[in-house]
């Protein structure tokens, strides 16, 4: 089996693609995989680090409407489509799987020209422009959010790293806390804001430290590499408050925690529910509001709290979050509710579907012709970071 994966630019596009690649290799270790990417995306570091080949193509803007004229766009887009086609030909690909982002559009169009099967995975509740295009070219469309509205969409969840999807938080809890210098007898809050941290979350958490200390709540705070260079022990009166720039093993951080306070990107929500960790979600206050949409089903199921970025204060943490975190029965109920929303096997389910589609065992309605009734969009680098 020879599989091309197209998803570049941000971790939210790349990580699900790499998790799918891992699952494909678990099913058949001889599977050949090439990840399409650009020179400016995170894929230049993440893909080789995970042991997969990276096929580079140019990153270029799209016109503002989804029309048949996409195939006639001169210059850089034509060059990107040609380069993507070259990578598909070199691999002799059996199927292309796109996850959105910089490289998905030229990948979809190059595969369409070669009559290769196309699979689309959309992680977000509001599909990006690239995947809206891809969904018009194939009946094989899968989503990571239960309420995503996209043509032919079928909910499977988001493929996750095995160290996350197979994590037993309870069995690993004591060792995980010891790893970070935390106590085993105190409720633990994990705070993080994505790979770079979140300023509003960081400030509110630091201001709330006296309330954490008074309530006996210990904190593992991932502040982001741009906000600190070295770990800092801010422990007061024997109640640990550990601030670190970055955590390489989020599975260990999840195992150490009873609850997380964090942004609500698609990957974050998928990981927390997969491991059954309740979240206090603080949606990113920019963009089209999709981070709130990511968190709402989890919160409605009882697996988390939701607070607007502007309303997150030390007082709110003291009056609302800490009483929840120190109520053991409620935390247990929230953990069970979060876990009920999780999809631990999305990687394997999607991998089996991809292999069946490549073998011609999955049929569907013929893809629709491109038309001009779709909404405007700016670039096929749709600016989303699903994390």
Description:
The protein is 40% helix and 16% strand. It has 387 residues and is α/β, with parallel strands linked by helices. It folds into two domains: 2-160 and 344-358, Glycogen Phosphorylase B (Rossmann fold, 3-Layer(aba) Sandwich), CATH 3.40.50.2000; 165-340, Rossmann fold, CATH 3.40.50.2000. The strands form two sheets. The chain has a seven-stranded parallel sheet, with helices on both faces. Strands 10-11-9-8-12-13-14 form a seven-stranded mixed sheet, with helices on both faces. The protein starts with a strand and ends in a 29-residue tail after the last helix.
Helix and strand layout, with pairings?
Elements: E1 2-8, H1 11-27, E2 32-37, H2 43-49, E3 53-56, H3 76-91, E4 95-101, H4 104-113, E5 118-122, H5 129-135, E6 141-143, E7 153-155, H6 162-165, H7 169-179, E8 188-192, H8 199-207, H9 209-215, E9 218-222, E10 232-233, E11 241-244, H10 250-256, E12 259-262, H11 266-275, E13 279-281, H12 290-300, E14 304-306, H13 314-325, H14 328-340, H15 346-358
Poorly predicted runs are: 371-387
* Shape annotation: elongated
Instruction: Count the DSSP helices.
Output: 15
Helix-strand pattern, N to C?
EHEHEHEHEHEEHHEHHEEEHEHEHEHHH
Largest sheet: 7 strands, parallel
Name of the CATH architecture of the largest domain: 3-Layer(aba) Sandwich
Return Rg in Å.
Answer: 22 Å
The residue-averaged pLDDT reads: 90
CATH fold label of the largest domain: Rossmann fold
Structural class: alpha/beta
Specify the helix fraction band. Answer: 25-40%
Number of DSSP strand runs: 14
CATH superfamily of the largest domain: Glycogen Phosphorylase B
CATH hierarchy class name of the largest domain: Alpha Beta
Strand order of the largest sheet: 3-2-1-4-5-6-7
Total separate domains: 2
């Amino acid at each position: 089996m020879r599989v091309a994966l197209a998803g570049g630019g941000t971790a939210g596009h790349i990580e699900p693609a790499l998790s799918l690649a891992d699952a494909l290799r678990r099913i058949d270790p001889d599977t050949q995989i090439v990840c399409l990417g650009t020179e400016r995306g995170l894929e230049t570091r993440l893909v080789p680090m995970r042991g997969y080949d990276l096929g580079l193509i140019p990153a270029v803007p799209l016109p503002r409407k989804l029309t048949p004229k996409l195939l006639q766009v001169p210059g850089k887009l034509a060059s990107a489509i040609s380069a993507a086609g070259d990578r598909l030909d070199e691999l002799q690909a059996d199927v292309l799987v796109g996850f959105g982002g910089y490289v998905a559009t030229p990948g979809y169009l190059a595969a369409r020209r070669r009559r290769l099967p196309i699979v689309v995975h959309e992680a977000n509740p509001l599909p990006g422009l690239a995947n809206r295009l891809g969904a018009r070219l194939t009946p094989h469309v899968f989503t990571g959010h239960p309420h995503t509205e996209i043509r032919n969409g079928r909910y499977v969840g988001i493929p996750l790293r095995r160290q996350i999807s197979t994590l037993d938080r309870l069995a690993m809890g004591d060792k995980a806390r010891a790893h970070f210098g935390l106590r085993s007898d105190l409720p633990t809050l994990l705070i993080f804001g994505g790979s770079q941290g979140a300023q509003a979350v960081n400030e509110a958490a630091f201001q709330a430290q006296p309330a954490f200390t008074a309530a006996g709540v210990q904190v593992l705070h991932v502040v982001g590499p741009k906000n600190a260079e070295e770990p800092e022990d801010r422990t007061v009166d024997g109640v640990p408050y550990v601030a670190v720039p970055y955590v390489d093993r989020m599975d260990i951080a999840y195992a150490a925690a009873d609850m997380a306070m964090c942004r609500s990107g698609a990957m974050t929500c998928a990981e927390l529910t997969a491991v059954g960790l309740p979240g206090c979600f603080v949606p990113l206050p920019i963009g089209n509001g999709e981070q709130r949409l990511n968190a709402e089903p989890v919160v409605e199921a009882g697996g988390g709290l939701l607070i607007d970025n502007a309303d997150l204060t030390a007082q709110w943490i003291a009056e609302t979050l800490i009483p929840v975190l120190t109520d053991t029965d409620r935390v247990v109920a929230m953990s069970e509710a979060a876990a009920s929303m999780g999809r631990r096997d999305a990687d394997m389910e999607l991998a089996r579907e991809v292999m069946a589609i490549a073998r011609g065992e999955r049929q569907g309605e013929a893809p629709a012709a491109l038309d001009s009734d779709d909404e405007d969009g700016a670039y096929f680098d749709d600016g989303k970071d699903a994390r």
